[in-house]
């Protein structure tokens, strides 16, 4: 289930409903109205709105869906499922927003104490060590 709330600043708020472990999880994301995701979302909304009136037949000979079955169909509509990894990522993003630590984490990860920086440093050291050992082996082989 998707919803749209256009704003004055050119942003589009997209709300998606997922099913996670039998619970309904709503994910709200605000994107720029010119972005690819916003455009695809708006196209999807237009398709849903144009399909709704066309689905009810006006010919008297065609059987219309009864009120109760159409309500049950809407209620029982399958929601997109959310994996455990997606839910964990969503929870982590929500926690960072609530605690206000997004900038602090970005600054910390950019520094020399960051995990990625340490891995890159160790990789460079390992590569240099390999080149030194290779040069020594090649120099010993030649008479």
UniProtKB/TrEMBL annotation:
<keyword id="KW-0995">Kinetochore</keyword>
<protein>
    <recommendedName>
        <fullName>Craniofacial development protein 1</fullName>
    </recommendedName>
</protein>
<feature type="region of interest" description="Disordered">
    <location>
        <begin position="34"/>
        <end position="67"/>
    </location>
</feature>
<feature type="domain" description="BCNT-C">
    <location>
        <begin position="62"/>
        <end position="143"/>
    </location>
</feature>
<keyword id="KW-0158">Chromosome</keyword>
<dbReference type="InterPro" id="IPR027124">
    <property type="entry name" value="Swc5/CFDP1/2"/>
</dbReference>
<dbReference type="GO" id="GO:0000812">
    <property type="term" value="C:Swr1 complex"/>
</dbReference>
<dbReference type="GO" id="GO:0000776">
    <property type="term" value="C:kinetochore"/>
</dbReference>
<keyword id="KW-0217">Developmental protein</keyword>
<feature type="compositionally biased region" description="Basic and acidic residues">
    <location>
        <begin position="34"/>
        <end position="46"/>
    </location>
</feature>
<comment type="function">
    <text>May play a role during embryogenesis.</text>
</comment>
<dbReference type="Pfam" id="PF07572">
    <property type="entry name" value="BCNT"/>
</dbReference>
<dbReference type="InterPro" id="IPR011421">
    <property type="entry name" value="BCNT-C"/>
</dbReference>
